[in-house]
Input
Amino acid sequence: MDDGLIGGSGTLVSRVANDIRQRIAARTLAPGARLPSIRSFAKTMAASKSTIVEAYDRLVAEGVIQSRRGSGFYVAGRMPPLALAEIEPRPDRAIDPLWVSRSSLDASDGMAKPGCGWLPSSWMPEAGIRRALRALARRQDNSLTDYASPLGLKPLRQLLARRMAEHGVEVMPDQIMLTESGTQAVDLLCRFLIEPGDAVMVDDPCYFNFHALLKAHRAKIIGVPYTRNGPDPELFGKILSQHRPRLYITNSALHNPTGAVLSSVVAHRLLKLAEQHDLTIIEDDIFADFEHQPAPRLAAFDGLDRVIHIGSFSKSLSASIRCGFVATRREWIDGLVDLRIATSFGSGRIGSEVVLSMLKDGTYRKHMDSLRTRLARSMGDTIARLKPLGIVPWIQPRGGMFLWCKLPDGVDAARIAQLGLEEGIVFAPGNVFSQAQAAHSYMRFNVAQCNNPHIFEVLGRLVADQAASASS
Amino acid sequence: MDDGLIGGSGTLVSRVANDIRQRIAARTLAPGARLPSIRSFAKTMAASKSTIVEAYDRLVAEGVIQSRRGSGFYVAGRMPPLALAEIEPRPDRAIDPLWVSRSSLDASDGMAKPGCGWLPSSWMPEAGIRRALRALARRQDNSLTDYASPLGLKPLRQLLARRMAEHGVEVMPDQIMLTESGTQAVDLLCRFLIEPGDAVMVDDPCYFNFHALLKAHRAKIIGVPYTRNGPDPELFGKILSQHRPRLYITNSALHNPTGAVLSSVVAHRLLKLAEQHDLTIIEDDIFADFEHQPAPRLAAFDGLDRVIHIGSFSKSLSASIRCGFVATRREWIDGLVDLRIATSFGSGRIGSEVVLSMLKDGTYRKHMDSLRTRLARSMGDTIARLKPLGIVPWIQPRGGMFLWCKLPDGVDAARIAQLGLEEGIVFAPGNVFSQAQAAHSYMRFNVAQCNNPHIFEVLGRLVADQAASASS
Output
């Protein structure tokens, strides 16, 4: 019996079972897929049929595959069809688009998070939030108990429309729908505008969660290389011709992760190309209020015709108070509201009431003024601390919290991130931002989270170790 | 052949295609517009049908137009592919699954809403919510500014686990993920468990938003007739064999819209069938705390193996404070958290902190005690008011706010709902709950929203008018 030749059927059974497990993990065998018949698989594996039967039975017992009477074996349906991340730890786990989010959200208070995408809690206007909550607790209407209207709190939408007008974006309050977050806004737009299999263009690098989100929508993600002035217009045009994406998602001002700003010249070229190819653009502008000087907005040039504008207060005011918004063509609002009700029902009013009161009483403006100054100082400090380690900013951003840096030659950011996590530091390695995986020697730093010298001690040591072993 | 006359069919195909491209560019044919039928366009262009077919096919290949099976060709592009509701007003608009939600959420304060799915604001524990908010405003940690941990506030999950244990559902706190709402929980589970085109079973009738939600997921919706003891087990089994649904979504206790309760006998049969066919069940239990006596729970019998348990506080505590949860197998939690981060990023802490403090200080328990009594009284009052109108409850529910009623013969609920809306009353006509559209003579009443005699005056008149014209 051939099984005997390679060490007993027990061993071979394990091998066959492992082989199948690996194919499932690698999605060569997708959830719900039919496994090869006993007979044909026995041939492929040069094993006896009884070995295959035993391996299959073992996997059935484990719940990995299922037997359906009279029809064969199938990869278990219960296996989530949509795993955004591999479940098992892998050596390259660091490049998973959710790695930074999960590590940052999971991090205990004692951990340093230079890779995290938001401000430290202590930088937030706590006193103002307390005041807004106390005022809300005194309110004598239905704010505390009832659903918001489908579009969300009207006075807040009116105020947002005025604020957008200051940035040159003409919009009526009924073209604005409030959401729980900027992410939820992008998610609803994807539900509304794309179908599974549609191509969607993002910047390379871009905010890693766009990758995760688009994967959840089963979109085909196409990255366009990002330059210091916005996406490369040449390549942008080529991708439009070749892949016909329905959608392009970007940050125009204070681009995440690079901190770069779209130039007017590039903006005009993009909009022209978008029109030629009937492309819709989502301009995710959640860092708008971090700018010292307003950069060009696609939505301003376009007048919300094919550009959809998104914002939120999670990064500037409080991550705990959920309030984002989307501004778009009036005729799309109804469909978005329907989708929103279908998928999360009504929205609460607490978040929008708190934001409204802080916008109205000046708390928000004062907070952002001092925040910009504080960030500019931290930006300088962080650049100075990174310099002796041989870590060089790609550009010096005009504002915001992000600094996109090149590591010394031969140093792999993902490896640093993994070793960093073992020492209690969450870094953001370049490839989590890169669809083409072309940013392995880059890292994003959040300057607001870099006030701890320990970060640079550890980073210096890890970088030096890697550089040394690379050159040896 | 006429094609020959104007220069060969190849040329004519190009001309026809060009003509359509120009019409699209000039917006004479708007995105989403239906193209002329092959036959009529052939006539217009003085070409053969095969020429038109070839031109259309070419444009489909280019992505300029789209073919929809059985329905013709449409201009591709900016037109949202996923409209949950018809955009144009239609005479049968009342049977749209979002009609009741939109009408209720849009309703002005002066309107009566016997069809609405939640309690009046004045029934909610406002004083308790104020107290909880004031306490929160005094907190000296990161509750007001930071994201919650990925699973959500731990003390609340611990408390929820204890509460579920009282209902016989054994669950560890790390098997629970907090969400913004019950709807968001179901939505995340659909993202996790089903793919476009998968069959999903719901009760007929069921909560109308399940239809809207599943439509957003492009699922094939199969309704199983609902009896006074739960879904019909015979038909349940038949649907499993025939359609192989991956998922069944139901309310076990105080079923929406009927107020019926699952019997233990039916529960066991369902679970046995579910196991045979590897069906996953979502038990949406958001009305759990409205029960006077706990009914059987699928999750309790099953031990969260193939049953997923969902709850929320939107109906019992406040619609403004968003806090729901999902309890499931531990190995699914990670994937759900990933999807949650990808699609709405972190969650806020305000909602869960408020709920936790009201659960802990006894406010919630006292509120629910008096709420149940108040609802029981309103239930009796509503039944008494409906009786003289010839409107008969299908069953007298053991609790909750919903009363599912049969209208007199010949009276169409959708028509009543439309006429009612014109008079400022939001009714919930039966067919919004029915996948098979088999409930045109039924209506759901929310007894908590029925304290206004005007509702019954208008309803009596509308019903009498219709009954009269039906019998004449």
User: Anything to note?
Assistant: Chain A touches chain B through 83 residues (CB under 8 Å). Residues 1-9, 78-82, 86-92 of chain A have pLDDT under 50 and may be disordered.
